């Protein structure tokens, strides 16, 4: 059944992985959490397992997602952050009641509230977004060079010169397009 839904594009940063549940925003957008069950799946993959999710909670999650996208885009462009995006991110952060847990192996885990609420998971994602937008974490927000993507991503490379989001498709697609264009321009010897 799950095969009917688009797969997840997971990056290394929680908040921007979350915004990547909607890809190709400037092209043929692909919604990767089309149902509450898919949000449950996405959260589980990202260490934020919840027991249930209502349609309203999915709506709220998408609202947070677009708020993070708007705030991260503005930050990447050195523009003022949209007030509505700030409000939604802050509301989600305040409403979440997750605790960071240190495992015996020295790893961080998130423990959500007793009912494993979606709101707690969104709170963790909102706090992660605050970290990267505020500059609290080492890295640089930038926009993907792909004109159909333009996703905000968090560049932690040494040189801070990454051009494409870390969804592993934009850069590859660009290279392929350039390769095909070159081939058309200079038809080589027949293979
Ligand atoms: Zn991209």
TrEMBL record:
It holds the Pfam family zf-CGNR. Coiled coil: none annotated. Residues 140-181 form the Zinc finger CGNR domain. It comes from the Bacteria. This is CGNR zinc finger domain-containing protein. It comes from Kaustia mangrovi. The lineage of its organism: Bacteria, Pseudomonadati, Pseudomonadota, Alphaproteobacteria, Hyphomicrobiales.
